[in-house]
Specification:
Protein name: DUF4401 domain-containing protein
Largest sheet: none
Helix content: 55-70%
Keywords: Membrane, Transmembrane, Transmembrane helix
Strand content: under 5%
Shape: flat
Organism: Flavobacterium limnosediminis JC2902
Structural class: mainly alpha
Number of strands: 0
Number of helices: 14
Order of helices and strands: HHHHHHHHHHHHHH
Length: 385
């Protein structure tokens, strides 16, 4: 099923781990260079800017092929627009396979052809069926195939978006169930995606798909929060169910969504500290901030400046308590420096702050060798005869 040589993919993973070890000062630069030069590798770009440049070049190449084909054959296929889109998808597929055969992976050119192929295919499905439901089904299937075959991380995200769109379409347009259950269905979908992530991540054979699994996990956490976020539920209730929230009124089950808006981020933060999960901690902090914004958007209890002052005091108390608790802790969440992070900038900043705070005066050296007058080893004439 894989389009690439598995040995070279494993070598790529090995070199990536070697770079991480070099960053943490476990191996030397010579050992890293020796590892990278002795192993056969795929053609990839570690520099994100270079990769974006090749991605734009690949998009330009794909559009040039499409333009040339339209210039030659568009008059013959004037009434078959979906046929052109299918043909463009085939061009993207052929280009993707050729690039995979040439060992282009995470290069930029392969990203352009993979995504262009999918966009053309989804457009062809939409034009052929004139409905969104087949498009979402195609996103689920094609995104999953591209993720597995080409190890393309964004394709995993496309497949997840397809699942959300499919359930949304089934409930809102196909009336599979009442629209009132849409937030709970989205939350159950997030739980299902997270369970799938845990199942796949526990299998050591799937280490090559670590980036795709990371996307799967992040998507499930974000979807789980926004599915029951009060702002999202209220706006969807007004637009889909026609609920008019008058002054002093609220949406159905408002207290439940108020509670979940704050409870889920707090659960993310608590579990992330217990499990030492940095990404979940970051998502928890960001969603907690958005929860305060949600309540502030609809209910303004205090002036903004008072809210900021109280928030600053709360953050100071939390930070001070965390420093006291974690000051002498050696394992888990600690104040010890992380070897995987580059602390050069932090050290330079500390040195600069110390230099600006200290009162340094220039030291004038004391001259213990007075010249003239013969005061040092008879050098020079004295004032007395």
């Amino acid at each position: 099923m894989l389009a690439y040589d598995k040995t070279k993919l494993e070598n790529e993973a090995l070199v990536s781990e070697a770079k991480a070890l070099y960053k943490m000062k476990f191996i030397s630069k010579e050992q890293l260079a020796q590892t990278a030069t002795q192993l056969p590798l795929l053609q990839s770009n570690g520099n994100i800017l270079v990769r974006i440049g090749f991605f734009l070049l690949g998009c330009f190449l794909f559009s040039s092929v499409m333009g040339s084909f339209m210039l030659l054959f568009a008059p013959l296929l004037e009434n078959y627009s979906e046929t052109l889109l299918y043909f463009y998808a085939i061009i993207g597929l052929v280009g993707t396979e050729l690039l995979a055969a040439k060992n282009y992976h995470k290069h930029g050119l392969d990203d352009a052809f993979i995504l262009s192929m999918q966009v053309a295919f989804y457009g062809a499905i939409g034009v052929s069926f004139e409905a969104t439901l087949p498009v979402f089904i195609a996103m689920i299937a094609v995104g999953l195939v591209c993720c597995v075959r080409y190890m393309h991380t964004l394709s995993a995200l496309i497949s997840c978006i397809g699942w959300v769109g499919l359930l949304f379409d089934l409930i809102t347009k196909q009336h599979l169930m009442d629209t009132l259950f849409l937030p709970f269905v989205g939350f159950l979908l997030a739980i299902g995606i997270y369970v799938i992530y845990n199942k796949l991540n526990s299998n050591a054979k799937n280490y090559l798909y670590s980036n795709a699994l990371w996307v799967l996990k992040a998507f499930s956490l974000v979807l789980g929060y926004f599915s029951v976020n009060y702002m999202v539920v209220r706006e969807l209730s007004q637009s889909l169910m026609g609920i008019v929230v008058e002054e002093g009124g609220d949406i159905p089950l408002a207290l439940l969504f108020y509670g979940l808006t704050f409870l889920i981020p707090l659960l993310y933060i608590a579990y992330s500290i217990y499990a030492k999960d940095r990404m979940m901690l970051l998502v928890g902090l960001l969603t907690l901030g958005y929860s305060f914004f949600t309540i502030r958007y609809y209910h303004q209890f205090l002036p903004l400046e008072i809210i900021l002052i109280l928030g600053g005091i709360l953050l100071f108390v939390i930070a001070f308590g965390a420093m006291k608790i974690l000051k002498h802790k050696e394992t888990g969440v600690t104040f010890k420096p992380d070897r995987s992070s580059d602390s050069t900038l932090l050290l330079n900043a500390q040195a600069l702050i110390m230099a600006t705070q200290s009162d340094v005066k220039p030291v004038t050296p004391e001259n213990k060798m007075p010249f003239g007058g013969g005061g040092f080893s008879g050098g020079g004439a004295g004032e007395n005869f």
